[in-house]
């Protein structure tokens, strides 16, 4: 965030830095704050900006995306728009597939269904452990780093673990060969659905606990300030109070909340008692900011 910015608008402005005059640009659906910035930057540079729709699953001819998770259909739609536009512009393709109103080329489908990215909705079975013991050891890996991405991760994991358990139950039932095929299928569906719901509820609870911890941090800042209140310069105290007031109005899941939280951490942790106010204000930039 130190490079891209503290708000969605600032981040969108930095991302729009790749826009070039009159060269087509593509984006996925965005929140209004970000989209307004992208549209403004595009207008100034006369850039034809288009929003790529999520990929229609029917265009994969019954195959699955190589990358797991429903959100990957958004990324896949952008990949199709970029690739087809470039290939059309360079004379290698007659049709642009941005609108997704016709079948995709075989090469597109192959790329979308065989692509992989380590650490993103990745399932890694430990074959060494599995070969040496009766149980299975499986790692479910994802780089979720925000409440929004954790929610997406939770949805993917609940589906992945349910599918895995469903397959294990089917194997177990087939081995036992008990009941009719219809009974086996029904029992398997019930078990898989129950397991999926249980896992999703646990992950949702974890997400709620994380959000609660972020809300509690608002109160903890005030408690940390009190013992050092007299040692913090008046100008700094004023800034801290303003940031605390802003923190109360922010959603704990927002990027601006995290930025404000980090700023308060830094402001409170500095050893203000080691510097006199006159010495502190000798720094021109700091004095300018605080005044």
From TrEMBL:
Task: Write down what this protein is called.
Answer: Folylpolyglutamate synthase
InterPro entries per the UniProt record, alphabetical? Folylpolyglutamate_synth (IPR001645), Mur-like_cat_sf (IPR036565)
Molecular function GO terms recorded: ATP binding; tetrahydrofolylpolyglutamate synthase activity
- Top-rank taxon, per record: Eukaryota
Its Gene Ontology cellular component terms are: cytosol; mitochondrion
What keywords is this UniProt entry annotated with? Answer: ATP-binding, Ligase, Nucleotide-binding
Query: Which organism does this record belong to?
Result: Erythroxylum novogranatense
The similarity comment for this entry is: Belongs to the folylpolyglutamate synthase family.
List all membrane-crossing ranges.
none
């Amino acid at each position: 965030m130190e490079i891209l910015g503290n708000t969605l608008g600032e981040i969108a402005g930095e991302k729009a830095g790749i826009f070039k005059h009159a060269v087509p640009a593509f984006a996925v659906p965005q929140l209004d704050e970000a989209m307004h910035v992208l549209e403004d930057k595009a207008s100034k540079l006369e850039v034809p900006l288009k929003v790529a729709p999520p990929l229609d699953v029917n265009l994969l001819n019954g195959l699955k995306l190589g990358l797991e998770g429903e959100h990957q259909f958004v990324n896949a739609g952008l990949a199709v728009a970029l690739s087809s536009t470039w290939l059309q512009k360079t004379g290698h393709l007659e049709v642009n597939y941005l609108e997704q109103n016709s079948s995709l080329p075989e090469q597109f489908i192959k790329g979308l269904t065989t692509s992989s990215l380590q650490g993103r909705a990745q399932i890694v079975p430990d074959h060494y452990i599995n070969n040496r013991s009766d149980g299975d050891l499986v790692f479910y890996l994802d780089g979720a780093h925000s409440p929004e991405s954790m929610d997406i991760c939770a949805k993917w994991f609940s589906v992945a673990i349910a599918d895995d358990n469903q397959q294990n139950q089917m194997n177990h039932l087939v081995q036992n060969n008990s009941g009719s095929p219809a009974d086996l299928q029904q029992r398997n569906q019930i078990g898989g659905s129950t397991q999926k719901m249980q896992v999703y509820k646990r992950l949702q609870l974890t997400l709620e606990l994380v959000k609660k911890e972020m809300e509690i941090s608002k109160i903890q800042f005030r408690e940390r300030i009190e013992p050092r209140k007299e040692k913090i310069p008046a100008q700094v105290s004023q800034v801290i109070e303003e940031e605390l007031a802003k923190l109360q109005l922010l959603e704990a899941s927002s990027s601006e909340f995290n930025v404000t939280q980090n700023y308060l951490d830094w402001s409170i942790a500095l050893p203000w008692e080691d510097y006199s106010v006159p010495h502190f204000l000798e720094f021109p930039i700091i004095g300018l900011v605080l005044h």
